[in-house]
Design brief:
Largest sheet: 10 strands, mixed
Order of helices and strands: EHEHEHHHHHEHEEHEHEEEEEEEEHEE
Helix content: 25-40%
Distance between the termini: 20 Å
Number of strands: 17
Number of helices: 11
Structural class: alpha/beta
Radius of gyration: 20 Å
Strand content: 15-25%
Length: about 425
């Protein structure tokens, strides 16, 4: 349990599935109104000291609706609209766009590219069916460029946000020199690493594009990450005082990715927290495996969902604190109220009579202390020093014992335990 006077190692606002430009005229006007309320809600919570001021905004995909290919008033440029909305959100919580980290989703793929180029369509068919390995395609410059061209608009959008570094993707083929060009192109398409100095430790953010093969409404069970990207993302386990966050759009469950079990196992070795979206329903869970490896998954609700869905728009604040025995992740979930037309505390994802949920991070050891604000390492993009706040709420002892319920889930040859943090 964190002490009330501790500063967090790292805090962030998690949002997903903005879908800028989606739907008919009414849906797009509703989207603008909901995003305005989200910005107001986030700014108010930070200003009132009810949540820690975030060190970053994390956006897990589906930023646009058509990869920036459609122009329908009032959204004539999907990524321009998204950039404006996210800029206002960052400003409301005291940040600049240089503190926004994002990965693309299936709606950020420019599907017009494969419709206009039969070679791209043929390549996608081979890769989605498994007739040709994704790693092989990424090792051939022609196929690589065909695949990544579908994320050109996304890359232009992301280039105006946080500065990131390419993942070390290794050689194009075994025995060949490493391909810096491939790594750089993949970084523009959402496969990246960023390292920051936190309060009492280091923070590493990993981005992985699970939508590389996204093409249509039949994506389920046809997507892949590939071994190249998995190995590059988690080459070694994190240090004892290093917090690692992994970002994807799709959950690594429910069968979206063919290789999701392998990806999940590698992230459990190389990361502490996995953030995702896509399914438009907020949830939090701790996956624990023998040998002391654990992975917390935070799944964001959609910032603005599909037309016809039950209005469950949502987002969350989160922070990692030093604890008595291990670090603790604290989560403040927010959910749209259709009746009141604003965002409120999400009672389905926090204990009764408490505004936050807590999940221990057993592998992370932090020293309780106050140190300077989080800042990117070796980066010229700085933001003003943060205002220090110490009170984010008091832990209720009666709620801690009821944090999780358990269920067994078999993954590969190992036995995983899924501890749902629904805290009803």
């Amino acid at each position: 349990m964190p002490r009330a006077d501790n500063e967090p190692l790292f805090s962030f606002l998690h949002v997903s599935d903005l879908h800028a430009g989606h739907g008919d005229d009414s849906h797009r006007w509703d989207q603008a109104m909901v995003v305005d309320r989200l910005v107001e809600d986030a700014g108010r919570l930070v200003a009132q000291g009810k949540v820690p001021r975030p060190d970053a905004v994390i956006l897990t995909g589906d930023i646009a609706f058509s990869g920036g290919c459609l122009a329908r008033p009032p959204v004539t440029d999907e990524y321009a609209a998204a950039r404006a909305a996210l800029g206002r959100l960052a400003e409301a919580v005291g940040l600049s766009p240089a503190r926004i980290y994002c990965v693309p989703g299936n709606h950020d793929a420019q599907r017009k590219v494969e419709r206009d180029d039969v070679d791209v369509m043929r390549l996608l068919r081979l890769l989605r069916s498994g007739e040709e390995p994704l790693d092989t395609a990424l090792g051939r410059s022609g196929d690589r460029d065909r695949l990544l061209r579908r994320f050109a608009n996304y890359g232009g959008f992301a280039s105006g946000l946080a500065a990131v570094q390419p993942l070390g993707t290794g050689p194009a083929r075994p025995g060949e020199p490493a391909s810096d060009e491939t790594a750089a192109l993949l970084a523009r398409a959402g496969c990246f690493s960023a390292t920051l100095s936190g309060r009492g430790g280091r923070v590493r953010i990993l981005g992985l594009n699970t939508a590389l093969l996204a093409a249509d409404e039949q994506d389920h069970g046809r997507l892949r990450l590939g071994k190249r990207l998995m190995a590059a993302a988690c080459p070694t386990p994190p240090a004892a005082d290093e917090l690692v966050l992994a970002l994807t759009h799709h959950p690594l469950s429910d069968g979206w990715l063919v290789d999701e079990r392998e990806a999940l196992a590698l992230l459990a070795q190389g990361a502490h927290v996995h953030l995702c979206g896509h399914v438009h329903e907020a949830d939090a869970a701790l996956l624990a495996r023998g040998g002391g490896r654990e992975l917390i998954t935070l799944r964001a609700g959609a910032a603005h969902g599909e037309a016809g869905e039950i209005e469950s728009h949502g987002y969350a604040f989160a922070a990692v604190f030093p604890g008595d025995e291990s670090a603790v992740l604290r989560l403040w979930p927010r959910r749209w109220s259709s009746r009141h037309r604003d965002f409120r505390h999400d009672v389905d994802n926090a204990p009764p009579d408490q505004s936050f949920a807590e999940i221990p991070i057993g592998r992370l050891r932090l020293s309780p202390r106050s140190v300077p604000p989080v800042s990117p390492l070796s980066s010229s993009q700085q933001v003003p020093p943060m205002t220090s706040r110490n009170q984010y709420g008091t832990v209720r002892d009666s709620a801690v014992a009821a944090l999780f319920t358990s269920a067994m889930m078999a993954l590969s040859s190992d036995c995983w335990m899924c501890l749902a943090a629904s805290m009803r």
